[in-house]
Structures are given as C-alpha cells and as structure tokens.
Amino acid sequence: MVAATKDKKPAPATKAEKRSPTIFKLCIAALPLYPAIRINLDAAQGQGETWAIVGIGFVIFGAVCIEHAIHSLRDKQAFSSALWGTLGAGFLALNLLNAIGNLAAHSDHSRDQNRAKMVAAESLSSQKVALQKARSEQAKVAGEATPESIEAEIKAQKAANAKLWNASFSCDLAWITRDATKALCATIAELEAKKAAAVKRDEIDAKLAKLDEKEETKGEAPSTVDSFADAMADGLSAFGYSVDEKGKLAIVRARDWGKAAGVELLAGFGPTALLLLFSGRN
Questions:
Q1: Does the CA dihedral 15-16-18-24 come out positive or negative?
Q2: Would you list the DSSP string of 166-207?
Q3: Which residues of the chain fall below pLDDT 70?
Q4: What's the 3-state SS for 95-119?
Q5: For position 228, what pLDDT does the model report?
Q6: If both were cysteines, with which of 41, 66, 192, 198 could 88 make a disulfide (CB 3.0 to 4.6 Å apart)?
Q7: What is the pLDDT at residue 131?
C-alpha cells in the first residue's frame, strides 16, 4: 500500500486549468489596446457610433496583423511575414491618422470650451461691476433703509401735517403757496425719491444675487485657453523665443501628434511584445 501510494502520479491538468493561464495572459496582452480604443470611443459623439466601431476594429486588426507578421518572421515564412507586415503597417498608418484627427478635434473642443468659459466669466464680471456701481449710486440716496420704512416716514409726515397736505390737494403745485406747505412738500418729495432709490437698490441686489448663482453653477473659469501651450510658451520665452497664438497652436498640434504616435505604436506592438514576453521567446 505504501509503495502504491508513492508511485501514484498526480492527475493531469484539465482543459480549463490549461486554458485559464492562457486567457489571463491574453487579457493582459490586450491592455495596450485600451488607450487607442478609448480615443475612438471619445470621438464617437462627433463621428457617430459606426465610425467609432470601424476605428476600434482597425486598432484590433492592426495589432493582430503585426502579431502574425512577427510570428511568421520568427518561423522564417517570408511571404506570410511580408503580407501580414504590409497589412499591419497599413492599419497602423490609418490608426495614426485617425488618432491625430480625434485628438486634434478633442483639443479644439477643449480650447473652445475654455475660451467660452473665460468670455462668460469676463461678461459676468463686467455686469457685476456695472451693477455694483449703480447700486452705490442708489445707496447714496437711500442708504440702507428699506422701502417699507421710508414709506412709513412719508405716511408719518402726511399724518402730522394733514391740514397742509389736504389744503394743498396732495402737494399740487398750483396750491403750494405758504412756506410751511413748501417745506412739507419738499420733505415728502425727498422721501419719495429716497423710496424710489431704495426700491431700485433692492432690484440691483436681486440681480447681483442671480449673477452669483450663475458663477457658482458654472464653476471657476479656467485661467488660460490651453495651459500646456502657455507653459511651453513661457518656457521658450525664458530662452528669448516669443510664441504667438499660431505658435501655441503648433505646440498643441505637436502634442496631439506625439500622443497619437505613442498610443498607436503601443496598440500595434504592445500586445505582441507582451505575448513574446510571456512565451519567453526572443
């Protein structure tokens, strides 16, 4: 019994056990495709779902073609390697052009959004300055007294001088003859002007409150249209090179080209490199 136990061999691995590491490695090898696929998904709003799916298909097929080309080259199959290599290079070129277009559109959209936010913020700021100036003018007349309190003062003046008020037929200019009546009507006129200024001041306060709500809703406006381009321009200015708006746009385009090249090269050769790494082959 002891000898039989020692000679017993472990059970062979099942198909599922053999497949699970392979599936895991394939999933890891497919990760370099994600950035390129993400670019196509982000551009789906502008191009439509069909073109996004086509772009994703190009990315996947390009990686597959490059993997087959390298596999055929390793097996010394010249024709197959040339065929798959040509297809892979073609898909890689198409993917690169597509990525450049998508990234450029995304950059332009972001720049337009930032520019619109900055213009909106400047408009709100100028409106607030104008309203604050108008409020200060009204506050000079009315102070901080409420319209209701001023109206109470007017009623108090009329009640205290009811005879003069009634005799002048509510301060009709044709009936203002006595000095006492003139003083009463002048006081009431000043209070009426003060009340009107207080009403106008409160209306301006309501408008200012709405502008504050808009600022809170829109959030803080960006300080620049493109921070990367401005940072590069500042760095070049330190070496004596001045960069205008066209130069900043060229910087942004160079960044888009660099991103597109990096993403597509990663998607084209990354899966193959990982598969070779997992297989332990040179």
A1: positive
A2: HHTTTT-GGG--SHHHHHHHHHHHHHHHHHHHHHHHHHHHHH
A3: 1-21, 44-48, 280-282
A4: HHHHHHHHHHHHHHHHHHHHHHHHH
A5: 87
A6: 66
A7: 94
What is the pLDDT, as a whole number, of residue 77? 87
Instruction: Tokens for 228, please give them.
Output: 């990367």
Positive/negative CA dihedral, 178, 179, 183, 186: positive
Provide the sign of the torsion angle of the four alpha carbons 140, 143, 144, 148, taken in this order.
Answer: negative
Whether 60 and 267 have beta carbons less than 8 Å apart is answered as no
- Secondary structure (3-state) at 146: coil
How far is C-alpha 29 from the geometric centre of its chain's CA atoms?
32
Question: Cβ distance 114 to 223 under 8 Å?
Answer: no
Query: Do 131 and 207 form a contact (C-beta atoms < 8 A)?
Result: yes
Task: Let me know: does 111 contact 81? Beta carbons within 8 Å.
Answer: no
Structure confidence by residue, pLDDT tens digits, 213-261: 888 877 777 778 888 888 898 888 888 888 888 888 899 999 999 999 9
